[in-house]
Amino acid sequence: MKKGLLFLFCINFYYASYAQWYPQSSGTNRTLLSVYFTDSLTGYAAGTNGTIIKTQNGGLSWTILNSGKTTQLNSIFFTNANTGYVAGNSGVILRTDNAGATWVPIPGGTIQDLWSVFFKDPNNGYISGSNVFLKTSNAGTNWTSQGMTTQYLLSAFFTDVNTGYLAGDNGKIVKTTDAGITWVPLSSGYFEYLYSIFFTNPNTGYIVGTGGIILRTVNAGANWSIIPSGTSFPLHSVFFTDSITGYTVGGVYPSGIILKTVNAGSNWTVSLSNAPNGLESVFFITKNTGYAVGDNGIIVKTTNGGAGFVDIAKPESRNIILYPDPVTRTLYFSNLNKPATISIYNASGTLMMHENIYNSSLDVSTLPEGLYLVKITEDNFITFKKFIKE
To answer: Of 254, 239, 247, 241, which Cα lies nearest the Cα of 270?
Structure first.
């Protein structure tokens, strides 16, 4: 067999292991952070370096659109086939009125990073960010800052034009019943990053975050319960197609995961394991047809609700201890099989260090202060830990 044909055979065999999640050619190696479809054929994804891409044939091919920006674009949302919005770092807000042909910057009155854009109807939209919450009531023509000055909030979801929820760092969840004028803190029982929030009705909602955390409320946020996910991967996005069927995606480079529930979140099973890149966002057009996007331009698609999964490789964890925590200079690892590969990611999922170590310590003095996730790879074992750098 010729080398080229052998290569194609190996690639096709590898992707066949995905069973019902099939790779799409995105045309970019940029990290894709958000995906949104307006119909069965037309979809968009946004990501790092000002990237916006579009498909008009159900993901068979994607074209790169001109956003006019080089900053990271974190969230994309469309209110109809033509009108869409993007929120990104440094206060960037973009709007298109011609299905992505052109994107116009909209002043938001802030230079803070903006993480999530959500519209309840064509006129009423909301953006959450770093120490800022923005609202529009005129289809994004004007955005006003209100009700939020000291929160680092990564996801927004509104169940009606007045009632909404924000989730973010240190397990923070807040709720408004007056369209963001005032906010009430809710108790999550969790103290790490919460990345994505989704409600299936006014009472039932879900939030996912670091460490494989899945939270559920059945009483409009008054109480949240932790649902076992079976993974220690960070989960970045959650989406439900109806009241009982939902998906969450996550992972860190170079491994991704998709989990599925068919009983309103009481149990989650693996729908895709060990994708070649971490996954950042998931969106379903119908009950069966959905897309997930992530690192290095990865896009995977299912047309049968992710059924028929065949596991590629299920990572196992070991009891490795990191100390001291917090750390200032040298991070030590106990119970480590050497050599090992250490990958360190910041709270935004950016790879900060990637080292092969042959002893039980690593110099992390060059890292900025903050919370970090560590992926430890030793032979057949993959372990995730976290630490704080001071």
So the answer is: 247
